[in-house]
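Q: For a teaching session next week I want to show students how multiple molecules come together into a single three-dimensional assembly. I've collected the sequence lines for a complex. Could you give me the predicted structure tokens for the whole thing so I can convert them for display?
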Amino acid sequence: DAGITQSPRHKVTETGTPVTLRCHQTENHRYMYWYRQDPGHGLRLIHYSYGVKDTDKGEVSDGYSVSRSKTEDFLLTLESATSSQTSVYFCATVSATSYNEQFFGPGTRLTVL
Amino acid sequence: EDQVTQSPEALRLQEGESSSLNCSYTVSGLRGLFWYRQDPGKGPEFLFTLYSAGEEKEKERLKATLTKKESFLHITAPKPEDSATYLCAVQWSSASKIIFGSGTRLSIRP
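A: Of course. Below is the structure for the complete assembly, covering every listed component.
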């Protein structure tokens, strides 16, 4: 268990509203990731971070931004939510002994009406 | 285009009936192939990492193998508690990017 929590766990919002999801880890891991999971698509990387204030885009980054001002927190923001962003969002960090082995949080189910 | 394909999409087995799940990939410059287990409503749980063709890893009733183009997750004498979705993921040249397959939903009937 990498001590990852996500908040909120569930959220329903309306199209056009801003939404921020939070990922918090207690293991002081350098790398953190945001994924979305949709039926038929598996997990797709949105953004990742390799240190405080160091972030980069994944394969589905359009419409999302991230921030990492502290090692333990990685925020994902939907500036103006759309129905296509309805999904389950997972945060992940990597093992302290192997950066290839990812540990995932419990997920946030987001519904955009 | 780099791709990871898992088959079958779903598999139903009787308890004790052994089988295999497949993960094929077209990634060039493989750095690692990963298997995860995901239970409903939860995040994926790491199982194995394989780095090179011919490598095998085992954990309880699960054994993962790797060739140059695919990986297999063999399940021997499965039990109902092995029911879950099994995800395969591949890491290639960039250290920070991983592609996931869509998963295989495994159901074991008592």
